[in-house]
Design brief:
Length: 151
């Protein structure tokens, strides 16, 4: 019968430290995979957003130019409901709309100036008109709000 040698304290400590390193590596791996999964999810949302946003922009433009006489029309109200529904769906996906107001200070971090115009009613460097809303996902700007700015 062979005599089994008992592990020494050093061997036990070495095995214990190896196991702890493996546990730490596995936890880091799980965190990295979760971050990558979130990133892929966000990228998928952005890709879908980029496909849908031109349609939403056109619907918003159509409702913005709706004649006063048609504002109570059931069909027109249905279109306005669709616009709100798409906007709510984007919000539910974590895509938030940037909606500056006329007179707000131009912020290059969130706004894109499509033109700079002379305007006596609005202070210089402030928004005259909002052409398109901008959008964020988390802290990431997907599209800046397109605005006209007073010079």
């Amino acid at each position: 019968m062979k005599n089994k040698k008992s592990p020494t304290k050093n061997e036990i400590n070495e095995l214990k430290h190896g196991w702890q390193r493996t546990q730490a590596d596995f936890e880091n791996f799980k965190k990295r995979v979760e971050k990558e999964k979130q990133s892929w999810n966000e990228e998928g949302k952005i890709e879908a957003f980029n496909q849908i946003i031109p349609v939403l922009d056109n619907l918003v433009a159509a409702t913005n130019h709706l004649p006063e006489s048609l504002k109570q029309d059931g069909w027109a109200q249905g279109i306005m409901f669709i616009v709100k529904q798409v906007q709510q769906t984007l919000e539910n996906l974590g895509i938030l709309r940037i909606s500056p107001k006329v007179g707000d200070k131009f912020n290059p971090n969130f706004h894109e100036a499509v033109s700079v115009e002379k305007n006596d009613q609005i202070d210089s460097g402030c928004i005259i008109n909002v052409e398109n809303s901008g959008y964020l996902i988390g802290n990431k700007l997907i599209r800046p709000a397109k605005v006209r700015v007073s010079e």
